[in-house]
Amino acid sequence: MTTQTTATKTVAAPAPNTPSGLIGIPAHLGRALATGGSALAVVSTFLAWTWTAAFPGDLTFYGYPGGLQVLVLVGGALATLFCLASYGVKGLGWLTPAGADAAVKYAVLGTFATAWYTVVSISVELGGVVNLEPGGYVVAAATLTALIGALALPFERPEPDPIDPEANGWEQFTHDAAHTMAVLRAAFASGSPRPVRTLPSYAEILIIVAVLAVALIVFTYGIGTEYDELFVGFLITAGFGFGALNRSGLIAHASQISARHQNITVCGAFIAAALFPFTQTDDQYATLGVYILIFATVALGLNIVVGLAGLLDLGYVAFLGVGAYAAALVSGSPSSPFGVHFPFWAAVLVGAIASLVFGVLIGAPTLRLRGDYLAIVTLGFGEIFRIAVNNTDGTSGPDITNGSNGIASIPDLNILGFDLGVAHDIGGFTIGRFANYFFLMLLITAVVVLVFRRSGDSRIGRAWVAIREDETAALAMGINGFRVKLVAFAVGATLAGLAGTVQAHVTYTVTPEQYLFAGTTPPNSAFLLAAVVLGGMGTIAGPLIGAALLFLIPNKLQFLGDYQLLAFGLALVLLMRFRPEGLIPNRRRQLEFHEEADAPTVLSKTGA
Fold first, then answer.
1. Contact 545, 295 (CB under 8 A)
2. 575 vs 118: CA distance, rounded Å
3. CB-based contacts of 449, cutoff 8 Å, min separation 6
4. Residue 429 has what DSSP assignment?
5. Which of 345, 440, 547, 608 has the CB geometry, 3.0–4.6 Å to 296, for a possible disulfide?
6. DSSP at 582
7. CA 283, CA 305: separation in Å to the nearest integer?
8. pLDDT digit string (tens) for 237-263?
9. Can you give the pLDDT at residue 6?
10. Which long-range contacts does 565-574 make (Cβ < 8 Å, 24+ apart)?
11. How confident is the model at residue 594 (pLDDT cuts 50, 70, 90)?
């Protein structure tokens, strides 16, 4: 007897690593939704979003975006460009050297967040969604559609880690949560950008100029936001926009091009900064500009101590105070017991030398300590300085600093007949008092940047990096650790004192309360250290950008009242969790925190 068998038909299982999106719709449909939704969001900005001008920005006009509509327009246009590049549209390939999908997700998410923040704010402030005009409904639906489409774009899902079969409920939950976070990270991850091809020198210089021009426009817009809702929307758009540009690989390409022309990039950055006062109609925002430069210059000096030499200094703001008090005492203030009025160059030397002396005096007996012990000693020095100047009032001690009243009525600087305290007309532009000090502080910042670059690339700079990485190994190789650390301490203190001499004249008054370890407004030691860590330790641009953000954001978030520091601290915690190496890290620190990153082909002397 013959038995006939029939092969059983089996359905092929999908490959375990088949790319798929977070939302289960076809990839081609998701891409179409993201593109169409982003384009429709751009169109909606030319419609009215509300019927009344009571909402800030007056979003009642047709054909003329205003206020938060401009931010949605920028975000939507960026998302649309990335979506078109993902289709392989000719002429847009340069936008996505690292791939388009991750950039699309960031750009669409930022546009969605800004648009829905605006719609919700209108509804809450004006009393319900009935206050929305058709444009408000259109932008809400368009950005939601685009977000759904973007989240459907495929990506490589990571395999879950094995789990113990006998794991309890909590262990199972933490395992699933960790895998979910890994999937989310993979969904927004991008590939390595392709190498940027070598262009003619003039073309690369034009690209650098364009990047600096965009940076100046963004900074000017952010610092000039006139109401709270607009600044919050600016933060959302700028944050997600930077993330989209970074995921697309454009930031990496711009960094490679600027690295080929470092001197031109640095000079161009200072020229762009010098143009800032000319973009303002009054002296209001130049005030923020000069304070940001003072804070950034001191942070860059601290970066030598912390970023290059690896010395944790928690009392660094005291050196700023030493320079400010020394300059105030010899600048002709009626509160000064010395009764002398030195010219600017002499006052600068006095402030810098005084900070240098204090740096050496404090560093010599303490720099043999390491780690937490050194941090505690420097923290004590900062408090000792504040208490000392508070007590030298003629009652508790000698009459030098006028105690808690400080040294007041510090006269404005007069350099070669140019009075920085009065407005001047330059090329049809009126340059006010704070703009004058902005230019002076910009010059001092350039000096500090020059010192940082030269010292970082010198023999002493390489010794600082060796001490930072492994002090024991550096000592074994013959490096005089104590001398090297003392030089770093002295140089950092001198640069802080240099900035303090200008701060004394800008603020008219120096008091002990300006130089605390921690406070609600910078500069103080905690904010200075945060600026270095946030921006990127061991780099030049990192502390400058970190200081600008740490000064500008609290100034603009004053409407939060008692919750200001809570929101600010939460933002710092999230940033340190997801980008611990800082906003602009050097390559070595980036590899320390992200082992899966590609190793650099070349490291500079300071690891940058």
1. no
2. 24
3. 266, 300, 540
4. E
5. 547
6. -
7. 34
8. 998 999 999 899 898 888 888 888 888
9. 46
10. 565/520, 572/530, 572/534
11. low
Question: Of the candidates 217, 36, 56, which has an alpha carbon nearest to the alpha carbon of residue 144?
Answer: 36
Give CA–CA dist 302/233, Å, rounded: 32
Q: How many Cα neighbours within 13 Å face the side chain of 11?
A: 2
Tell me what percent of the residues of the chain surpass a pLDDT of 90: 15
Pull the structure tokens for residue 529: 């250290």
Tokens of 548: 């600008």
The DSSP secondary-structure symbol of 5 reads: -
Please list the residues that pair with 415 across neighbouring strands.
418
User: Rounded to whole angstroms, how far apart are CA atoms 344 and 341?
Assistant: 9
What's the CA gap between 260 and 182, in Å, rounded?
36
pLDDT at 115 over 70: yes
Measured distance CA(104)–CA(82) in Å, rounded = 6
Two tokens, residue 382: 């900062």
pLDDT in tens, 332-344: 888 788 878 888 8
Q: Which two tokens stand for residue 534?
A: 């946030």
One-letter amino acid at 557 equals L
3-state secondary structure 22-36: CCCCCHHHHHHHHHH
In SS3 terms, 335-366 reads as: CCCCCCECCHHHHHHHHHHHHHHHHHHHHHHH
Distance CA 234, CA 228 (A): 10
- For the chain, what's the residue count? 608
Token couple for 182: 């890994």
> In angstroms, rounded to a whole number, what is the distance separating the alpha carbons of residues 171 and 179?
12
